[in-house]
Design brief:
mainly alpha; 0% strand
Length: 180
């Protein structure tokens, strides 16, 4: 069974709410790929991300954050610590931490990913929209001002309207409307 088949099957099983079965399949695939290709390969990062999604579906947010951190470590070694993929992993970690009610840690993680994206220039701006929107929502949930992050998300979404899509612009505007 090739990588994509394992991941696709696990995704389908997860959609059927059979997360235990999906977890077992993904863990087995991870062991096989570690044995064949070693610890550092993109497939193992994808498997860790998929395991994190299974754990999120089960409300095991601390385990999900740990799986996302494992994926981040692999991505940093394979693709690079300053890549858009690594910045995206910080966003995923922040999301899991926020769901776990760890807003201070989630905000710090989100800000780390945003700082990385900021350093990448205009090519990273489309990714910044969602990251800034999520940061604004976390800040608002924490009771601190999310206005600056939400305003910036709206501005970027409007700038990249053709590529950003209506959903991202609407989400950014909702974050601004709800921000304190």
């Amino acid at each position: 069974m090739v990588e994509g088949t394992w991941i696709s099957k696990a995704d389908a099983i997860t959609q059927l709410k059979r997360t235990g079965e999906a977890r077992t399949l993904l863990q087995k695939a991870d062991q096989v790929f570690a044995k064949i290709y070693g610890d550092d390969n993109e497939t193992r990062a994808k498997l860790a991300m998929n395991l994190a999604e299974v754990e999120t579906a089960e409300n095991h947010f601390d385990v999900a954050a740990a799986d996302y951190r494992r994926a981040l470590a692999i991505i940093e070694r394979v693709i690079g610590p300053d890549s858009q993929e690594a910045a995206g992993m910080h966003r995923d970690i922040a999301y899991a931490l926020a769901l776990d009610g760890k807003l201070d840690a989630a905000i710090a993680e989100a800000q780390q990913g945003i700082t990385m994206l900021d350093g990448m220039g205009p090519d990273a701006e489309p990714r910044l929209i969602g990251a800034l929107t999520e940061l604004a929502n976390m800040q608002t949930a924490k009771g601190i001002s999310g206005i600056a992050a939400a305003r910036r998300a709206v501005a970027l979404a409007e700038k990249h309207a053709a590529g950003a899509g209506d959903a991202e612009l609407a989400a950014a505007r909702d974050a601004l409307k709800n921000a304190r």
